[in-house]
Amino acid sequence: MCALYLSNKIIKVSLKGVLKGIAKTDEIILEITDNEIELKELINNLSNKLGTEFKNRILNEQNDISSDILIEYNGKVFPAWLNERKIIKKGDSLTIFSFVHGG
User: Fold this and answer.
1) Helices (DSSP H) in 24-103: which residue ranges?
2) Do the beta carbons of residue 85 and residue 40 sit within 8 Å?
3) DSSP secondary structure of 9-33
4) How many angstroms separate the Cα of 78 from the Cα of each of 61, 71, 94, 97?
5) What pTM, to 2 d.p., does this model score?
6) Structural domain contains residue 103
7) How many other CB atoms are there within 10 angstroms of residue 67's CB atom?
8) Number of domains, the chain
9) What is the extent of the structural domain holding 79?
């Protein structure tokens, strides 16, 4: 029963583009302690899990989400930095990517 309880409190995060390259994976499963989490806290947890290079790419010097980071969640794409307080619920999936890719 404990394993089922933990598995219900996960969020699947897909990474695209440069973020996928830095993380060296295209998908991360995050466990959360509550039934929901704010996007900013999710990004911080993800950054702590994936290391300094990822953190430096997704967060700016003020520890805010970088302005080029976009989120696809529930069929909508939006800038992460304008929606840091957006609630992400357990069992949901989202995609994080940057619109700056290099050349």
Assistant:
1) 39-50, 52-58
2) yes
3) SEEEEEE-HHHHHHHT-SEEEEE-S
4) 22, 5, 11, 11
5) 0.86
6) no
7) 14
8) 1
9) 8-98
**pLDDT tens string 74-98:** 999 999 999 999 999 999 999 999 9
In angstroms, rounded to a whole number, what is the distance separating the alpha carbons of residues 83 and 102? 25
pLDDT tens digit sequence for 45-68: 999 999 999 999 999 999 999 999
| Number of Cβ atoms within 10 Å of the Cβ of 83 | 15
Q: CA Rg, the chain, in Å?
A: 13
For 61, the token pair is 């010097």
What is the C-alpha to C-alpha distance for residues 7 and 46, in angstroms, rounded to an integer? 17
The amino acid at residue 60 is N
Tokens of 80: 């992460």
Contact indicator for 79, 95 with CB cutoff of 8 Å? no
Q: Is residue 63 part of a domain?
A: yes
DSSP letter at 39 equals: H
